[in-house]
């Protein structure tokens, strides 16, 4: 799974460059109205939002853990206690669980519960 993330980064970098820098020059300033189902029902309190860094870090935690596990497996000897611990923490469900716990701590349970319904 970690190799998929590593290859994905190699594909993502040129894609972001094309979509963020090159494509807007060809499209120009298009005016597109926002559909009503995408508009907020209640105004958002801009002073109570998490920082940009935290908002980016939390979804990337599983990817960072799994990539770190893949890189650590280069040096770790298979079937040793260290290898077992690293691969347990780097497994997809555990990495997602760690990210969820971090999200609860950073965003608070009230924010997470309001986002889920």
Explain what the structure shows.
- The chain is an all-alpha fold.
- It has a domain at 50-116.
- The protein is 71% helix and 0% strand.
- The chain contains 5 helices and no strands.
- It has helices at 2-27, 52-75, 81-89, 92-107, 109-116.
- The chain is flat and about 60 Å long.
- The two termini are 31 Å apart.
- The model has no long low-confidence stretch (mean pLDDT 85).
Structure summary, number of beta strands: 0
What general form does the structure show?
Answer: flat
Largest sheet: none
Report the total helices: 5
* Mean pLDDT metric: 85
Rounded Rg = 19 Å
Kindly, what is the distance between the CA atoms of the first and last residues, rounded to a whole number of angstroms? Answer: 31 Å
Give the topology string: H per helix, E per strand. Answer: HHHHH
Decide which structural class fits the backbone. mainly alpha
**Low-pLDDT regions:** none
Percent range for β-strand residues: under 5%
**Amount of helix:** over 70%
Keywords: Membrane, Transmembrane, Transmembrane helix
GO molecular function: gluconate transmembrane transporter activity
Transmembrane segments: 6-28, 49-76, 88-107
Protein name: High-affinity gluconate transporter
């Amino acid at each position: 799974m970690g190799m998929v993330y590593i290859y994905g980064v190699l594909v993502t970098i040129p894609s972001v460059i094309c979509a963020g820098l090159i494509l807007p020059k060809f499209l120009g300033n298009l005016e597109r109205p926002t559909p009503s189902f995408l508009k907020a029902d209640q105004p958002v309190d801009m002073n109570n939002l998490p920082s940009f860094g935290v908002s980016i870090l939390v979804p990337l935690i599983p990817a960072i853990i799994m990539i770190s596990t893949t890189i650590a497996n280069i040096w770790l000897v298979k079937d040793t206690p260290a290898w077992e611990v690293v691969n347990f923490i780097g497994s997809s469900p555990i990495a997602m669980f760690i990210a969820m716990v971090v999200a609860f701590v950073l965003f608070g349970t009230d924010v997470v519960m309001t986002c889920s319904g």
